[in-house]
Amino acid sequence: MTRYEPADSFETPRFSGVRTFMRLPNTQDLENADAAVVGAPFDTGATFRAGARFGPEGIRSMSHLLRRYNPSQEIGIFDHLSVIDYGDVPVVPGYIEASYESIQKGLEPIHRAGVVPIVLGGDHSIALPELRAAAAVHGPLALVQFDSHPDTWDAYFGQKHTHGTPFRRAVEEGLLRPERSIQVGMRGSIYDERDWDDARAMGFDLVPTDAVRKIGIEEIISRIRERVDDAKVYVSFDVDFVDPAFAPGTGTPEIGGFTSREAQEFVRGLAELNIVGCDVVEVYPAYDPAQVTALLAANIAHEFLSLIAIQKAGG
Amino acid sequence: MTRYEPADSFETPRFSGVRTFMRLPNTQDLENADAAVVGAPFDTGATFRAGARFGPEGIRSMSHLLRRYNPSQEIGIFDHLSVIDYGDVPVVPGYIEASYESIQKGLEPIHRAGVVPIVLGGDHSIALPELRAAAAVHGPLALVQFDSHPDTWDAYFGQKHTHGTPFRRAVEEGLLRPERSIQVGMRGSIYDERDWDDARAMGFDLVPTDAVRKIGIEEIISRIRERVDDAKVYVSFDVDFVDPAFAPGTGTPEIGGFTSREAQEFVRGLAELNIVGCDVVEVYPAYDPAQVTALLAANIAHEFLSLIAIQKAGG
Amino acid sequence: MTRYEPADSFETPRFSGVRTFMRLPNTQDLENADAAVVGAPFDTGATFRAGARFGPEGIRSMSHLLRRYNPSQEIGIFDHLSVIDYGDVPVVPGYIEASYESIQKGLEPIHRAGVVPIVLGGDHSIALPELRAAAAVHGPLALVQFDSHPDTWDAYFGQKHTHGTPFRRAVEEGLLRPERSIQVGMRGSIYDERDWDDARAMGFDLVPTDAVRKIGIEEIISRIRERVDDAKVYVSFDVDFVDPAFAPGTGTPEIGGFTSREAQEFVRGLAELNIVGCDVVEVYPAYDPAQVTALLAANIAHEFLSLIAIQKAGG
Amino acid sequence: MTRYEPADSFETPRFSGVRTFMRLPNTQDLENADAAVVGAPFDTGATFRAGARFGPEGIRSMSHLLRRYNPSQEIGIFDHLSVIDYGDVPVVPGYIEASYESIQKGLEPIHRAGVVPIVLGGDHSIALPELRAAAAVHGPLALVQFDSHPDTWDAYFGQKHTHGTPFRRAVEEGLLRPERSIQVGMRGSIYDERDWDDARAMGFDLVPTDAVRKIGIEEIISRIRERVDDAKVYVSFDVDFVDPAFAPGTGTPEIGGFTSREAQEFVRGLAELNIVGCDVVEVYPAYDPAQVTALLAANIAHEFLSLIAIQKAGG
Amino acid sequence: MTRYEPADSFETPRFSGVRTFMRLPNTQDLENADAAVVGAPFDTGATFRAGARFGPEGIRSMSHLLRRYNPSQEIGIFDHLSVIDYGDVPVVPGYIEASYESIQKGLEPIHRAGVVPIVLGGDHSIALPELRAAAAVHGPLALVQFDSHPDTWDAYFGQKHTHGTPFRRAVEEGLLRPERSIQVGMRGSIYDERDWDDARAMGFDLVPTDAVRKIGIEEIISRIRERVDDAKVYVSFDVDFVDPAFAPGTGTPEIGGFTSREAQEFVRGLAELNIVGCDVVEVYPAYDPAQVTALLAANIAHEFLSLIAIQKAGG
Amino acid sequence: MTRYEPADSFETPRFSGVRTFMRLPNTQDLENADAAVVGAPFDTGATFRAGARFGPEGIRSMSHLLRRYNPSQEIGIFDHLSVIDYGDVPVVPGYIEASYESIQKGLEPIHRAGVVPIVLGGDHSIALPELRAAAAVHGPLALVQFDSHPDTWDAYFGQKHTHGTPFRRAVEEGLLRPERSIQVGMRGSIYDERDWDDARAMGFDLVPTDAVRKIGIEEIISRIRERVDDAKVYVSFDVDFVDPAFAPGTGTPEIGGFTSREAQEFVRGLAELNIVGCDVVEVYPAYDPAQVTALLAANIAHEFLSLIAIQKAGG
After folding, report:
1. Are residues E57 and F54, on separate chains, in Cβ contact within 8 Å?
2. Strand, helix or coil at C235?
3. Which of the four pLDDT bands, split at 50, 70 and 90, describes residue A215?
């Protein structure tokens, strides 16, 4: 059996070679993979800045800094996992519904093959086809969403699909189990005082940044773990969860956010959950002059791989 | 009668005040205007880079450098014209057909009022609703297009509307008089050797950059003037007509282009044509770190105003 | 009675339209306004970097991300306030005393109309004419200053007016009530060990960052509230109060500063004080490539509006 | 037989997928290739700016804008050629002699397979191992060098290998036929009036920019063609040949250079020469904020492919 | 006698050492110098962008690329000249008249010592104290000004001193011999059709860019030489003379300008004029992300040194 | 006796003059100095990004913001110390062993003169010649290293010298006393779980960021002080110790790092240790668009000067 792992950075320098995630092989051989990093370069759903279509390129570029072993989790990722860079799913820029179909169709075979996708966005509107693909295989899912916005608005400009609406649509379509789902990090100004209550009314546990600050991160991690329990879970990480100091290159930044270390703590706290898919979204390289946002996103994807390796190691 | 003109830069500095085009009043009072600068912050049609939605902001910002008198044309613009900054027409990001309707609906009243719109893009897909609005009032139009691409492809990803297709659609919809229309500046690699012939088959006179270099700019200007003759004409200026050295902040740059001075020469050569509308499109501020592209576009709009002033003065 | 509020971002996208603060109407109709956002694009007082003249443009641009409701303060700003973008007060670049007169003359009518100005700087030297205008109407004022420098130096290069001297001048001119005033956040290297003691000798309570770290933010907020008590107060926020990671685009950055969230906590702690004016200054867009500084400043202005709304709601 | 060509940009957008040159397959299957694009991410030879190691990444990124047909040469590249992205040859950052060995070893098999390499630099020091590899297979070669410096200095800091010395070394090693070689574009200040005469003394025909301006580009192209005649020729294009307006992102820019169009004319003028290898070097993405340098380099590589296609078509 | 020349770039790399112009000694030893490079980091006179105070730093930084020999002029600068980096003259930011005094006082001793100053700006307002210093020693001077604006406006905002007024003031003060003076390159929009005629009425020969294009550069050079004849001449080079593609980092850029090569041609055409001082001004590093403007300015200063060396060699 | 101190920023503005560290005299007069700031513009050892050769320039530029008195340490640096900017030690770009010799030879005389060097890097590979120079004079040294990587790998690409290997080499060469040495801040992914244990096996006390977070900064400072005790100590500060939000412009950034304030706390905690040399390394200006990394590094150097002043004051 073939096992896929990164090129050896003691042999060839990390700045060399075609940019795949972590210098992994670019292949669609799902049979020999445990996890697949997949780009979804779609940004037609964005309501303020544009350019998340270059997110996968930016993340792959900075992922070359990543190494095999995660000392905080004490796990050698590639001792447990065969991982591939699957390339990008096809998208249709300017056409959100056609893209939704194409993204879903691109991701479903990965789930069917028992491979865990780590999707690199793209704006957050891609969460809907991601969940459609995952739910088609795994049934309704728990959701852990790290984000400064719940993305449960009903419509913008009279249109149902933007990066502000995917999770409302997902609930409407029965893709999620809201009672097992949790949204963490909401903050910033909102349109209406009901904005967050709407998400709660859909069944989500919505935890604003203010609440995290009052209650403490460890406590919130426990709350996430209890909420999700043993459900199959999708983890969605919008980089605007962290403060713009740590992630300037995003579409709708909100000040007053988390540090990169706090973000790591949250994600590391998901160890042993039953993760069937995950994403890191809303990276806009044109607004990321020193590439710190792309580096953060690459690291979050690396933490996801670590979680999957822990699952595998423990399984 | 109210006359609209820029704030006096000897009274208050050009870097002050809310950013309207050339520090003109931001009003929709069409009755007292001869020309209206209008933003169309739409970029859902873009096939490579994204972010032309910030084009109008970028152009308005740099337009504060512009002054009232055009010495190359020997015309004091505001001695002849009352000009307003009309604001932006509404768009629906992510939805190209809804935006087309909205842009057309936004522009039609301007034409009906006998006011000449100078549209600030936005990606070049907005040319279609611009032409729909103009043709609804003025009937089929001649087109003078400065561009490195003809934008007459049939479809991308199976979709009829992108910034690569508006002029084919416009011909199909009978909005243009191809026999009075001319496209200047095509260059760069193309998908197929028939790409340009297709435009010619639709009736356009397509003049590649190579041909301009061989024939000379003055000669081409004469050819434009003869072609258009006394027809009502729409002038569309894609900033990728000039070389990326002069306009880096654009969506699909092509090297080997014209200088900013050559661009001015071309536009100045249109004096006394019967212009009913014009645009300058494809400015992407996120790729324009020193704002030279926005400055170029602002100057092109200034040349358009000069042309309209000359028409008015001569009328 | 006319009420002024932002354009509806579900109707037209936030990236559209002429850039006013929060997409508010640009008008000088003080009769129908409770608060007025005013630019003061002046930077002749700067002693290191230059370019705060583009601060108001930068802040207005990013303010389009802001929404109507502040969930941390549980206040719907425009349920209580009518707010306008007043435009910029005239300045005379290169001439500090002429500008001081012009700025003062521009701001006084706002105070006289009972409207609370939120001034967007400009370098911090504008605080002097701001205070002159405010004190001319309201009498001597308490000051709450968030800043890494006290700006109470006597002179630079033998000149009395720079962005390092306004608060000494204000005390000398009797515009302030130092015994009700407090300066928070001083840090970084200083010219002389007496620099801060000088401010104290003028009567200010000067609280260095080191002291805040020792004592705690909540405690300092109480100290501010006790100090100001029921005095009429002017709040001045220099973005170098926060760390350069969160606000790189400023004139004299000092490392070791506060986070954006801590800045929000401080400002939110001023609820129910009797605020008659406020500013956010020292934004330099040319040093703010990812616009995070402008976004922070826009948010601080939004917090100011929230405070004024709370006053109004409670009044 | 497998034929390699770019992905279809009407099927999937050009901004998608792992970044290979022109969206070509990343493979080392030399048997089925006519030309191979190869990165040499080496910059240890640079004497001023650093960072050409990211040149191949930058060029590949912008090459996604390129299309299959070159209308100026009237050639459909992939109608005649099967082309691969070979990846990068291994380099040893910080160790110039070890890297030279590794680069040579990486390139030789390409030549032996009868495949023409188009090398993406890297600083210009890589020309030496390129020529070693080429000459090992083809014997001593003619050289056509477009550059603002002859790169024939003897030593810097007492060291024989930098990006200022490769062509002197190549002559010393007998890799070149100086009497069939020509260097075009030299300009800018030099260390000593003998600098250029040294190159001439080695046998090169050195044509300064001043001479090109006096004589004319067409004439110089004829001179190149006569000089090279039917010799096997290596073409080396340093992007500092063009003016920094057109290629700011380079290591030792010299003002007063050629335009991008003039560069195209020169390269197009090489049609039907017997090219056995070529490179485009000295792209420094960290100094290329709007990516125009990378775009220029990608286009030059595209012109090289066109030349090879013409050879093949005519062969 | 001590002779000052640059550090040897074959001994230590050009990127090393404290940044002086061309790696020259930083000294004020006028006795042993023929020419002195002097910074005037003053930008209080700027009417649009700000930040020319960092111009000398930016130019010095890129000047490290320059070498000793100018092949276009066939002159080894330091074979004929001893040159120093004199440091910066003191300025008083925010106070234009105090700065004028200080700049004049700083420059006069250089002229008195028979040393030719090459002043690095700073905004163009510094030309007035430069000319005061020069005329105090040499009497009224001829002026050769390369610029897109004549800078002969009367006043801005009621103030006599800005970067738009120095040459009118200079004429009023009798510092210039207008009948021996010439201004080349004017273009762009102007406030009033009389703007340029005013300069002519003061006695200047004002040559717009349009005229240069019509007449030809060589012809204009002859016109300059005839105009100046054997008068003592001051040469002032505003980088906005060239197009923003070649010099984006300037205060009031105007499109349609000259190339860097054309700028070199003009300056080289001044050989053997009797130059007593010169400057290169309006470099704004914050708007010069790839440093091409600073590089251009450094090269212009290098051409000035070449002219002085030619004078000396021929003397 | 001459005493060297910064230029007076109340006399001439901080943005003026040739860029030396803190506007100190640029001299090599060791006799009259207590401390010397020295650049080591070497980056041939870097394994990912390139460009630390411009680190000293960048740090010097931003150091102009620094003032004489450190209020957190209550020390007036120049009341106790005479400090010089020594310039840069010669390096040989592209040749690591030749550079090591040259750097060592450049630094040794400083140590011999009893002057404490504060070295501005350069990549971290320069630590080896720094330690060779220091140990040659002072014997084996304690090391306090702030860094996210231990830099104790054995080899990259079969080569012994890179910025990932200096401290292993230093131990092998007997330059360090590992039992008195401590490495603080390690984090991020590693190649192998043994990476950190290797450093411990060499005798270092390696304290990961995770451990600091668990134990607390104050506690770790005590641990450092106990470990070093009264040994002669070298302090090495890699800016990647702090988070990329605070120091984006570095070679191998790792998220999850310390804040700038925490970095200050650590360095301030070293007061009264017996420091014989120190450095701040890995500043890459090309990746530092808002100069915050350079500012941070300049401040760390300022803290080092404060420590040396405290030593001197207490001695």
Report:
1. no
2. strand
3. very high
End-to-end CA distance of chain D: 20
In this prediction, residue E2 has a pLDDT band, given cuts at 50, 70 and 90, of confident
* Beta carbons of F214 and A218 less than 8 angstroms apart: no
Among the partner-chain residues D48, D189, D248, the one whose CB lies closest to the CB of E70 is: D189
Residue A209 neighbours by CB distance under 10 Å: 22
Q: Is F47 near chain A, with CB under 8 Å?
A: yes
Count of Cβ atoms closer than 10 Å to residue A76 Cβ: 19
Instruction: Encode pLDDT of F155-187 as tens digits.
Output: 888 889 999 999 999 999 999 999 999 999 999
Establish if E74 touches chain D: CB-CB under 8 angstroms: yes
d(CA B172, CA B166): 10
Write the pLDDT tens digit of every residue in F73-126.
Answer: 999 999 999 999 999 999 999 999 999 999 999 999 999 999 999 999 999 999
Report residue D315's pLDDT band, with 50, 70 and 90 as the boundaries. Answer: low
The architecture (CATH level 2) of B21-303 comes to 3-Layer(aba) Sandwich (3.40)
Q: Give the torsion sign (CA, E226, E231, E235, E240).
A: negative
Peptide bond into B158 cis (omega under 30): no
Chain A residues with beta carbon closer than 8 angstroms to that of B157: 92-93, 95, 98
Give me the residues of chain B with pLDDT under 50, please.
Answer: none
How many other β-carbons are positioned within 10 Å of the β-carbon of residue E19? 25
Q: What are the structure tokens assigned to C106, written together?
A: 């521009």
Tens-digit pLDDT profile for residues A230-263 = 999 999 999 999 999 999 999 999 999 999 999 9
Pairing type for strands B75-76 and D75-76 reads: unpaired
Q: Is A67–F253 a contact, with Cβ atoms under 8 angstroms apart?
A: no
Alpha-carbon distance B211 to nearest alpha carbon in chain C (angstroms): 39
Residue D219, phi then psi, degrees to nearest 5: -60, -40
**Which residues of chain D form beta strands (DSSP E)?**
35-40, 69-70, 75-76, 83-88, 116-121, 142-146, 182-186, 205-208, 232-238, 274-281
Average pLDDT, chain F: 97
Q: Which residues fall within 8 angstroms of residue C91, CB to CB, at 6 or more apart?
A: B12, B13, B16, C40, C41, C42, C53, C99, C102, C103, C122
How far apart are alpha carbons D252 and D229 in whole angstroms? 31
pLDDT in the model for residue E58: 98
Interface contact A192, partner C, CB < 8 A: yes
Q: For C151-207, what is each residue's pLDDT tens digit?
A: 999 988 888 999 999 999 999 999 999 999 999 999 999 999 899 999 999 999 999
What is the torsion angle, in degrees rounded to the nearest 10, for the CA atoms of residue C146, residue C150, residue C151 and residue C156? Answer: -150
CB contact under 8 A, F17 and E53: no
Reduced to 3 states (helix: H, G, I; strand: E, B; else coil), residue B229 is: coil
Instruction: Determine what percent of chain C is predicted with pLDDT higher than 90.
Output: 95
- Tell me how long chain F is: 315
- The backbone torsions φ and ψ at residue F35, rounded to the nearest 5 degrees and listed phi first, read -140, 150
Tell me if the pTM is above 0.80. Answer: yes
Task: Give me the phi and psi of D120, to 5 degrees please.
Answer: -100, 115
Using the beta-carbon criterion (under 8 Å), do C51 and E51 form an inter-chain contact? Answer: yes
- Cβ count near B74 (within 10 Å): 10
Looking at A96-152, which runs of residues are DSSP E strands? 116-121, 142-146
Q: Are E143 and E169 in contact (CB under 8 A)?
A: no
Domain definitions of chain F by residue range: 21-314
CB–CB of A190 and C291 under 8 A? no
Distance (Å) of CA D123 to CA A195, D54, D166, E175: 55, 10, 11, 51
The fold for domain F21-314 equals Arginase; Chain A (3.40.800)
